Amino acid sequence: MLTLPLQVIDSFLLQYNIGQAFLLLFVVGLLATLPLKSKTVVGLHVVLFGLLFVLTPLSMMDSEFIYRAFGLALVVVGPMVIVSGQ
């Protein structure tokens, strides 16, 4: 098993803010839920990350309002995906 020293991981993560990390996790998680072919699971994933973007303080995301707006959009779109999947 390949293990990286914590300094390498830390130096990589210091280049990004928490909003960018959440966005990466959202995309990877969305790609992971697509093979399940369940709109309910995809919708719940979208709502969860929408709430995560909305509730995270702006000071942790380098004061970029675009992540909060993206979160609001996800909170609106997520329930629509859930309802259309039933």
From TrEMBL:
Every DUF8006 domain range: 4-84
UniProt key word Transmembrane: yes
InterPro entries recorded: DUF8006
Source domain of life: Archaea
TM segment ranges: 12-34, 41-59, 65-83
Keywords from the named record: Membrane, Transmembrane, Transmembrane helix
Name of this protein: DUF8006 domain-containing protein
Organism, scientific name: Halomarina ordinaria
